[in-house]
Amino acid sequence: MVDILIVGAGPAGLSAAVNAITRGKTVRIFNNKENYLSKAERVDNHLGFYNISGKDLMNKFKEHAEAMNIKIEEGKVVNILPMGESFMVNINGEIEEAKKVILAMGISKVKELPGEGKLLGMGVSYCATCDGMLYRNKDAVVWDQSKDALEEANYLSSIGVNVTFVSKNPRSEHLNKSIKYYNGALTKIIGEDVVEAVIAGQEKIASDAVFMLRDAVAPTALIDGLKTEGNFIAVDRNMETNISGVYATGDITGKPLQLSKAVSEGLIAAQHAALQIDKIKEN
Ligand SMILES: Cc1cc2nc3c(=O)[nH]c(=O)nc-3n(C[C@H](O)[C@H](O)[C@H](O)COP(=O)(O)OP(=O)(O)OC[C@H]3O[C@@H](n4cnc5c(N)ncnc54)[C@H](O)[C@@H]3O)c2cc1C
User: Fold this and answer.
1) Taking the mean position of all CA atoms in its chain, how far away is CA 5?
2) Are 103 and 198 found together in one domain?
3) Distance from the CA of 106 to the center of ligand 1, in angstroms?
4) For residue 41, how far is its CA from the centre of ligand 1 (angstroms)?
5) Atom of ligand 1 minimally distant from the CA of 76
6) Is the Cβ atom of 262 under 6 angstroms away from ligand 1?
7) Which domain holds residue 179?
8) Are the CB atoms for 104 and 16 separated by under 8 Å?
9) What is the tally of structural domains in the chain?
10) What separation in angstroms does the CA of 277 have from each of 3, 26, 162?
11) Which of 113, 119, 202, 232 is the most exposed place for a label (fewest CB within 10 A)?
């Protein structure tokens, strides 16, 4: 079991990691793609760094973390399950137990499709390697929203799932021969208690499952019952969410969507989480 598991290695997540290590805690930090700051042409408003590109600044943050033996692991966190005193975190099929979790995923651009939230776990999945086996010899739609979607569709077909790949991009040539291909957008998931079909373009495709292979997961889909305010996660002054032991930091908690705010929130969350862990140890 790890003390603190951090979702996202942008400025907020890395700041949380550095501060958790400073407080003597064990940390695992996961990141699934390049972060926002790397796109900034020039940053002038982070104290101590004037006229620096976002990419160079991000590299400095990473170097700092690495110098403190923090290893940024590649992986998408797809689910967090509260277990009383700890959390079971699913990272693309790998399960890690953590005493505290810090969400630092950046601004959420994920819009759930109609039917998605209701049927999550009832045919809707965010992870082919986690849930693929459940749909062996059954029909599954893969909705292409990330660079890994092709690979995951091929994986599903290799374990015996009858896959239909729905994509807005014409990239069917890289799919296994047995996979059906539909060029268009997925707009709706249909089903009462379990997934029964999807709407893709003008067509209704019968299916037992839908794999929504996006780079990001909506925060509310990551952990059940998480309180939001508009598009952001609601937090208190310690950056703790309504779920005790789960913190949120950085752009994901709201405006201003700025680097220095993200870094400060990472510090606050890590220090509070560390304090709570120490209190439990004392008792
Ligand atoms: C073009 C541009 C210019 C900017 N210029 C400035 C500026 O000059 N000054 C300033 O202060 N701010 C600027 N910003 C804003 C700044 O980049 C953000 O405020 C900051 O990056 C927020 O940090 P964060 O850690 O909250 O999120 P992010 O930097 O977005 O990092 C979140 C990370 O979490 C990862 N992630 C998401 N979901 C998961 C998951 N399920 N599992 C694992 N990892 C996950 C993402 O891949 C990402 O790497 C700029 C932003 C842009 C886009």
Assistant:
1) 12
2) no
3) 5
4) 14
5) 42
6) yes
7) 124-214
8) yes
9) 2
10) 8, 11, 46
11) 202
Q: Give the rounded percent of residues in the chain with a pLDDT score beyond 70.
A: 99
Regarding whether 146 and 129 lie in a shared domain, the answer is: yes
CB of 10 closer than 6 angstroms to any ligand 1 atom: yes
Question: How far apart are the CA of 257 and the centre of ligand 1, in A?
Answer: 8
**Where are any strands of DSSP class E within the chain?**
2-7, 27-31, 72-74, 77-82, 87-91, 94-103, 124-125, 139-145, 162-167, 180-183, 186-190, 197-200, 203-206, 209-214, 228-229, 232-233, 246-248
146-162: pLDDT as tens digits: 888 999 999 999 999 99
Mean pLDDT over residues 47-52, rounded?
A: 94
Are 103 and 223 part of one and the same domain?
A: yes
The answer to whether residue 34 scores a pLDDT higher than 80 is no
Same domain, 189 and 276: no
Do 87 and 14 lie in one domain? The reply is yes
Is 33's C-beta closer than 6 angstroms to any atom of ligand 1?
yes
For ligand 1, atom 3, name the residue with the nearest CA.
Answer: 40
Which pLDDT score is estimated for 156? 96
- Give the HSE-up count for residue 129: Cα atoms under 13 Å, Cβ half-sphere: 15
Q: Residue 165 — very low, low, confident or very high, per pLDDT cuts 50/70/90?
A: very high
Would 202 be classed as within a structural domain? yes
Say which CATH number the domain at 190 has: 3.50.50.60
Size of the chain, expressed as the number of residues it contains: 283
| 226 lies in the same domain as 251 | yes
> Both 180 and 223 in a single domain?
no
- For ligand 1, whether the C-beta of 219 sits within 6 Å is no
